[in-house]
Design brief:
The structure is a homodimer. Chain A folds into two domains: 9-73, Orthogonal Bundle (Arc Repressor Mutant, subunit A), CATH 1.10.10; 76-215, Four Helix Bundle (Hemerythrin (Met), subunit A), CATH 1.20.120. In chain A, 61% of the residues lie in helices and 4% in strands. Chain A is built from ten helices and three strands. Chain A has helices at residues 9-23, 34-41, 45-58, 76-98, 103-121, 125-141, 146-161, 172-177, 180-187, 191-221; strands spanning 31-32, 61-64, 68-71. Chain A has a three-stranded antiparallel beta sheet with strand order 1-3-2. In chain A, helix 5 (103-121) packs antiparallel against helix 9 (180-187) and helix 9 runs antiparallel to helix 10. Chain A binds chain B through residues 5, 8, 46, 50, 53-54, 57, 65, 78, 81-82, 84-85, 88-89, 91-92, 96, 145-148, 150-151, 154-155, 158, and chain B through 5, 8, 46, 50, 53-54, 57, 59, 65, 78, 81-82, 84-85, 88-89, 91-92, 96, 145-148, 151, 154-155, 158. The structure holds a DNA duplex.
DNA sequence: GGACCAATGATTATCGATTATCGTGAGCGC
DNA sequence: GCGCTCACGATAATCGATAATCATTGGTCC
C-alpha cells in the first residue's frame, strides 16, 4: 500500500531529498543545486524545483530568488519557540478533545505509550521518537478539528526534525512515562490537569533539547565534525560544516 | 517602494490570481486551468504552476494530481475552527508579549484602534478590516517569537479571507472598540485579563461571522447568486456557483 | 595598495513542446 | 436498456533549451 499515487516524479524527488537531508548527506547550510540533483536522479529540473518548493513549505530548506535552496540550519531559539507554540496548540487540542474523545481513542493512546516504553527499554530511541510523534498526532486528531490539525502539522517538521529523544543524556524510559499524566488527565476529563501535564511535558522536552544542543552541537559547530556518511556537497560558507544528524532524527512521511 | 524584487514572474502571477480570487472573478469551487491563465497573462505555464502551488500552501486553492487547481470553498466549520485556533495563538502571543512589550508598541496599538474607529465611523468596513489585521499582526510581532508569527501568518488567509466585519448587521464601531480591552490588559500587564479579552474578542467575531454566513451565504448556496462581476470561469460541478465575495474581503499582502 | 568596474562562470527562472494521466462519452456485447 | 471497453479531448506533469540574474574574479585607475 504505497500510499496513493506513487508516481508524480516530484513527490519521489521530494522524498529522496528529504531522506538525504535527514541522513546528513546534505548537512545544514549546504546548498542544493537544482540542476545537479536533476542530473544525478536522471530527471528534469522541473520536478526537482517543485520538490524543493515543497520542502521549503515543510521548513527544511530555504529558498532565495536566483540564489537557490540551502538546508536550513537548525536554530536553537527557533526550535525552543516551536516547542512553546506546539505546547499551547496541544493544550487547546486536549481541551477540545476532552468532550468528545472516545474510549477507543484513549485506548490507542495507552497502547502508544506502551510502545514507547518498549522502544525505550530496548534502547531504540529512533523508534521511540516515531511513536512519540504518533501519540501527539493522535491527540490532535481526536479533536476532529481539521484546522488545528493542519496548523499542528505545519509546525511539526520544525519541532520534530531534531528530536531530543536521541540525546545520550536523556532517560528514554522517563521520557515515555512523561506521557502518562497527559493520558490520565484525559481519562479523568480534567482540562486543567491535562493542560498542566502537557506544558510540563514540553518543558521537560525543551530542557532536554537545550542540554543536547549546547552539548552535542556546539562541538560540531566548532569544527570537530567527523562525518561518516559520504558528504555530497560541503558548505563552503562561513563556519565549518556541521555534523550530519543521523540518529538524531525522526523520519516519517508527512504525506496526506 | 515596491517591496523587494518586484520581478520574479511567478510572484506577480500569484498576486494576480489572489486578487482575482478575492475579487470573485474565480468563485469558490471554480477551476483554475494552468494553461489558460498562462495564455491570458501572456506567460508560460511554469510560473502559473508555481503561483498555484504557493496559493495552495496559503490555503486558498486546492490542487489534485493530474486534475488541477480549484478555489477552495470556504467551509463554515473550518472558518470557525480557524477562529478558535487563532484566538489561542494570540492568547499565547499576549502572554509572551507582556513581559517585553515596549511603550511605543503599545502606543502603536492605540493608534491602530483609533484608525479602526475612524474607518468604522466613515463606514469604510474594508479599511477597518485591513487595520484590524494590522492590529493583531502587531500584537503577534511584539512577542519577538518568529515561530509564533510564522504559524499565525499561516493561519491568517483562512481566518481572514472572509472577514466578518463587512457583514451588514454588525456594528462596526463596536467591533473596533472590542480591541480596547485587549490593549488595556496589555498596559496593565495582566495576562489573565488579556487572555479573557482576546477570547471574548474572537467569540464575538465568530458569532458575527456565523450570523453573516447563515444569512448572506445560504442564499447564495441555494442558487440565488446574482453576480455583478465579470465571472471568468463558472464552476460546472455539482451545486450552483457561489456569489463572489467582493467587499466581504480584506485584501493585503501576505509578503515575506 | 585599495576601490571601482567589466567580463565570466554558475545557477535559477522562464519558455515552448512533448508526454502521461484522467474523465467522458460513443460504441458494443449481453 | 444496461454495463463494459476503448478511443478521444482536456489538462497536468515533465522535458530540453534559453534567458535572466547573481556572485566572483581579474584587471584597471586613482
Amino acid at each position: 500500500m504505497p500510499s496513493i499515487s506513487r508516481d508524480v516524479l516530484s513527490d519521489q524527488v521530494e522524498e529522496h531529498l528529504l531522506q538525504a537531508i535527514l541522513d546528513g548527506r546534505y548537512p545544514p547550510g549546504s546548498r542544493i543545486v537544482e540542476t545537479r540533483v536533476a542530473r544525478d536522479l536522471g530527471v528534469s529540473q522541473a520536478p526537482v524545483r517543485e520538490a524543493l518548493r515543497d520542502l521549503e513549505a515543510l521548513g527544511v530548506v530555504e529558498i532565495t530568488s536566483f540564489r537557490g535552496a540551502s538546508v536550513r540550519r537548525p536554530d536553537k531559539t527557533e526550535l525552543l519557540e516551536a516547542y512553546g507554540v506546539r505546547a499551547e496548540l496541544e493544550v487547546l487540542a486536549a481541551r477540545l478533545a476532552l468532550s468528545r474523545i472516545s474510549d477507543e481513542a484513549l485506548h490507542e493512546l495507552q497502547v502508544l505509550i506502551d510502545e514507547m516504553r518498549m522502544s525505550a527499554a530496548t534502547g531504540d530511541r529512533h523508534a521511540e521518537a516515531l511513536v512519540d510523534v504518533r501519540f501527539h498526532a493522535r491527540l490532535v486528531a481526536a479533536t476532529g478539528n481539521g484546522t488545528l490539525e493542519r496548523v499542528w502539522r505545519y509546525l511539526l517538521p520544525v519541532a520534530r526534525t531534531y528530536i531530543t529523544l536521541a540525546a545520550p543524556g536523556v532517560d528514554a524510559v522517563a521520557a515515555a512515562d512523561l506521557h502518562r499524566p497527559i493520558l490520565d488527565a484525559l481519562q479523568m476529563r480534567d482540562p486543567e490537569l491535562a493542560a498542566a501535564s502537557i506544558r510540563r511535558h514540553f518543558q521537560a522536552a525543551g530542557a532536554a533539547f537545550e542540554a543536547t544542543f549546547t552539548q552535542g552541537f556546539s562541538m560540531a559547530a566548532t569544527g570537530a565534525a567527523a562525518s561518516g556518511g559520504s558528504a555530497i556537497d560541503r558548505v563552503p560558507g562561513p563556519g565549518p560544516a556541521m555534523e550530519p544528524m543521523t540518529d538524531l532524527i525522526a523520519v516519517d512521511n508527512p504525506g496526506p
